[in-house]
Amino acid sequence: LFILSVFKFLVFQQITMAENSGDLIKINQVALFTPTLNEIKNVITPAVAKNFEEIAVDVVDCPDLTEVPFQLASKGLGGHPKLFDIGGPPFLLPSVQRNKIYDVQTILKQINYNNKAFVIGAGAGPWPQLSRNCEMMMNVVIDSDEIKNQTKLAWVGEDNQCVLQNCKESDTRLALLANLFVSEGKPGKVIKVYAKTRTGNLDFITTIQNALSARYKSQLVGMGGTFLIKQGKVKQHVMPDFSPVPLNSEKSLNDWLHFYNMSAPLVAVGTLVSAENNLDLRVQHFHSFSDHGEGGHYHIDVTPDTVEYLGYFNVADCLYRIDQPPKSVSFGKD
């Protein structure tokens, strides 16, 4: 029975996509299990309560995410919600594969996502735009070839400081890897997760992901959305330019990355799934940006006594695994 259940949620459709080089990229389309939002609420509430002092988990109407403090490119998270898991750490580690560049517009056309597409999430930015490696906080609306691009890019400056800048309006590319939530950006019901004062060892997203993993052992569940770090500071990293030497271990990777304690308010975007499964999925990936020049890859808050989170998430009905690397690596997914 367990094997049958696993088989049912791993059945996928293969799609191919042509790169600029003429090579074919394989896209696996995976149907996700879609619990009701009320069920998700009941699954994650005990986990959040175990890890934070003050919590509230509710099913609510999504607030207008274009307004302060979120300032996203569309109002909501509703309408044909999908997940994209693109590339992966093996295209960066141990040595970078610079040819791994993807355009979200091309992917949307290939999978026949003919609706307005609101795309948010975390990934490596389009290095050709900056002539250097960078982090990406995708935040873009693509509608009938019209683009509203509020994507941010973060990179390491000459003095080892974090530099945060706007992506070019017309550039909807990314490189190497990304985890994106795609919807029509419509208002609708979402899961609201509020948490203040961390008392446990798990970060905000790991708390939610672990709860999903424990509940849905034989089913693949995926979510995406945004959360605000309202108070406190968080540990985040920014990738410097590509390493001239191979990064063969977790230590060498961490020595290469630049870590910062970044201050609230920060707005994070990304995805989480209940399991890696045989598609080598990244179980969680969120990047944050701000109005004060800081942004990067979210790890955990470093001020547990004062940290305050507010998140809004929706459940996706389908996942597209795009250009899965032929080999996995044992590190680089944190």
From TrEMBL:
Entry GO MF terms: hydrolase activity, acting on ester bonds; zinc ion binding
CC terms in the record's Gene Ontology section: nucleus
Residue ranges of every copy of the DUF1907 domain listed in the record: 43-322
Signal sequence, start to end: 1-18
Keywords: Hydrolase, Metal-binding, Nucleus, Signal, Zinc
Keyword set includes Nucleotide-binding: no
Keyword Metal-binding among UniProt keywords: yes
Top-level taxon of the source organism: Eukaryota
Compartment annotation: Nucleus
InterPro entries in the cross-refs: C11orf54_DUF1907 (IPR015021)
Principal subcellular localization: nucleus
Subunit structure: Monomer.
Cross-referenced PANTHER family: ESTER HYDROLASE C11ORF54, PTD012 PROTEIN
Protein name as catalogued: Putative ester hydrolase C11orf54 homolog
Organism: Cotesia chilonis
